[in-house]
Write a structure and sequence with these properties.
single chain; 673 residues; alpha/beta; Rossmann fold; four-stranded antiparallel β-sheet; 10 strands; 54% helix; binds adenosine-5'-triphosphate; ABC-type transporter activity; ATP-binding; membrane; ABC transporter domain-containing protein
Length: 673
């Protein structure tokens, strides 16, 4: 008799537990940031906050002007722009090319590049608080997707998760989080494909963009900015990317994107719209229905079955086909801007402020939970993560390594054939010097070119990661050096292994090993110099122009063409810092010391010591020359570190705007500037 109630209690408890679990699972579903189930968390493990905190970004009378040296305004990039982006909404900033979309997006993300010539004023608040005091996390998906090309999608995301999530997360929880992101962003089918680049085919452009979004979502941002997310994508991929952004908005994120001229199906996904022309707002409000009514009331009715995006683009673009058309369109745009301004003035900022106040209240009630506190690991932890990435990038880049290997062997075969089996005659002295100089130049040039070819792009990735505070520079540079060392050493070693026996250089195993050691040290120094060039040059093309030019100077003062004793006083420091000179000096000492030559005349060179005297390398040793080479390598590494540290992105400060007199916009003037 007592059994039945007990069974009933157990059944009820079981059903209740299952229901609760089901409800909790349902609640978790649909939230991007919620992935770790409570039962999987172990003691001390930290979960990512589950809900997306609603965030409103509001900006008021934002002005951005460019001034000349005398302080006169030469260009107005943004003119008294006001608006707001709301939680759960997808806001699109549209306008013709050069209308200020990217500038506005940068301002809203707090990432407008600092410049002494630019002045930025206005107000920017997040949930009613000044931007600078906000603790809400913002994500910015840039127009250019930059990744390590040899890593797979999953590896890229996993590494970003390891760098950005608190260290207290267990590996299993992190993997689940990454897997969830892969599902959400539609990246499961390409999860194990390498990202790729122009040389190696990898994932598609749309997948790259979604991977960029996924990487930004790791830190659970409340606000997502995306700069022209559909640029360069075909219609299908553009649609998928925009659908992803729309879903994120539906999940509670505040999503703001700039877009040029979307298709109708993409336009229909927008909740809110800002139309910009010459940096001024032509319209700001709901994208569907209201926008069309607004313009229809002003006498610009969008014809039926016409894509509103195309209609608006035509409406706010200047027509340059003739001077009359140009004048007429400028006039029309100026009127549209005035019409919007007067409408805004009538409405006042009432709505904006009331929302901001409520949002501030919700912040004060302790709802600010969306910030993931990144528990950055120490040096060793960062080093091992970055080492793994650098190792994969270096060793998997088969095409580059194959080309470098082929070039090393081919040049060794060519030089080997030219300097084939050198004897000990007097003329062989010049041949040996020529060969050693050529070996020094060839090694340095191939190491330099390889580095300057890839580093400027990698630098941009590192700078973005640095801006997020993912890791420090020192572990990054050391990990890169360690990971690349074996591969970088392999090519000069292969060169030496072929050219040395072919040319009959000083035939002893010890000398051969020393030869290989010298060219390897030189390759490291040239690579380090390439890093510095890559850190200075703004683009790969600039780096490719600068690197070899600089190296040419070091070649001229490399000890072969100009004897260091004859170097003009003003240039005497150059041979001392020339990596070619120290390599050539070390190679010459290694080759000539103790070598006897066939001497028929009294003025003939008897031995290698006499050759070294003529080259002014007499009192030196291989050890000394190699240590100078390594010092040069260290100098270039240090300089790269300093430059990367100094080049950290700096952003323009938003100054409070002074109360302005009624805003007078001069579209005609502005466009002539
Ligand atoms: N720091 C600056 N100094 C001078 N002019 C600038 C600066 N930054 C941007 N501009 C100019 O301001 C205008 C707006 O640039 P912005 O990149 O914001 O336009 P956009 O609407 O995003 O254009 P697109 O669709 O072509 O990317 C352009 O004419 C640009 O050349």
């Amino acid at each position: 008799m007592m059994v039945a109630p007990k069974v009933a209690t157990v059944v009820v408890a079981g059903v209740a537990a299952l229901t609760l679990r089901f409800v909790r699972r349902r609640r978790r579903r649909g939230r991007l940031t919620a992935v770790v189930e409570d039962e999987e968390l172990e003691a001390g493990e930290q979960a990512v906050p589950t809900a997306v905190v609603p965030v409103t970004v509001a900006w008021d009378r934002v002005e951005c002007v460019v001034r000349d040296k005398r302080g006169n305004v030469v260009k107005r990039l943004l003119q008294g722009v006001s608006g707001e982006a709301k939680a759960g909404k997808l806001l699109a900033i549209m306008g013709p090319s050069g209308s200020g979309k990217t500038t506005l997006l940068n301002v809203l993300a707090g990432q407008l590049a600092a410049s002494t010539r630019v002045r930025l004023t206005g107000s920017l608040t997040i949930n009613g608080r000044p931007f600078s005091q906000s603790k809400h996390r913002l994500a910015y998906v840039r127009q250019e997707d930059l990744f390590f090309s040899q890593l797979t999608v999953r590896e890229t995301l996993s590494l970003a998760a390891e760098l950005q999530l608190p260290k207290t997360w267990k590996a299993k929880a992190r993997e689940r989080y990454v897997q969830e992101l892969l599902y959400r962003l539609g990246l499961v089918t390409c999860a194990d494909t390498i990202v790729g680049d122009a040389k190696v085919r990898g994932i598609s452009g749309g997948e790259k963009k979604r991977l960029s979004i996924a990487c930004e979502l790791i830190a659970s941002p409340s606000v997502i900015f995306a700069d022209e997310p559909t640029t360069g994508l075909d219609a299908f991929q553009a649609e998928r990317v925009m659908e992803t952004l729309r879903k994120l908005a539906q999940e509670g994120h505040t999503v703001v994107c700039s877009i040029h001229q979307p298709r109708g199906s993409i336009y229909s996904k927008f909740d809110d719209l800002i139309l910009l022309s010459s940096g001024a707002v032509v319209y700001a409000g709901p994208a569907q229905g209201h926008a069309l009514t607004y313009f229809a009331d002003l006498g610009y009715k969008c014809p039926e079955h016409t894509n509103p995006a195309e209609y608006f683009a035509d409406l706010i673009s200047v027509d340059y086909s003739s001077s009359e058309n140009e004048g007429a369109t400028r006039q029309k745009i100026a009127e549209l801007v005035e019409a919007f301004l007067s409408k805004q003035k009538k409405k006042g900022n009432h709505l904006l402020m009331s929302y901001a106040d409520t949002a501030r209240d919700s912040d004060e009630e302790g709802m600010v939970q969306d910030t993931v506190m990144v528990n950055k690991g120490g040096f060793l932890w960062q080093f091992q993560l970055l080492l793994r990435r650098a190792w994969r990038q270096t060793t998997r880049d088969k095409s580059t390594n194959r080309v470098r290997g082929t070039m090393s062997i081919t040049s060794a075969l060519i030089f080997g054939s030219i300097f084939w089996r050198m004897g000990r005659s007097q003329t062989s002295v010049q041949d040996r010097m020529g060969l050693l100089q050529v070996a020094a130049i060839n090694t340095a040039m191939s190491a330099l070119t390889k580095t300057v070819n890839v580093f400027p792009k990698e630098r941009s990735i590192v700078q973005r990661e640095q801006a997020k505070g993912s890791y420090s520079l020192a572990p990054y540079l050391i990990a890169k050096l360690v990971a690349e060392a074996p591969v970088s050493a392999a090519f000069p070693l292969a060169f030496g292994a072929v050219v040395y026996p072919m040319t009959n250089l000083n035939p002893s195993l010890e000398r051969f090993l020393t030869f290989s050691g010298i060219v390897t040290a030189e390759a490291f120094a040239a690579s380090a110099m390439g890093l510095t060039v890559g850190a200075i040059a703004p683009t790969t093309e600039a780096a490719l122009a600068l690197g070899p030019s600089l190296m040419t100077v070091f070649i001229v003062f490399g000890g072969y063409y100009v004897n260091s004793e004859n170097t003009p006083a003003i240039f005497q420091w150059i041979p001392r810092v020339s990596l070619i000179r120290w390599a050539f000096q070390a190679l010459s000492i290694n080759e000539f010391k103790g070598l006897k030559f066939e001497a028929k005349n009294s003025f003939d060179l008897q031995d290698g010591e006499q050759v070294l005297e003529r080259l002014s390398f007499g009192g030196s040793s291989v050890k000394n020359a190699v240590s100078q080479e390594l010092r040069i390598a260290l100098f270039w590494y240090w300089l790269t570190y300093v430059l990367l540290k100094r080049n950290k992105a700096k952003y323009q400060v938003l100054e409070a705007s002074t109360p302005v007199s009624p805003h007078k916009l001069k579209i005609e003037e502005l466009d002539h500037e």
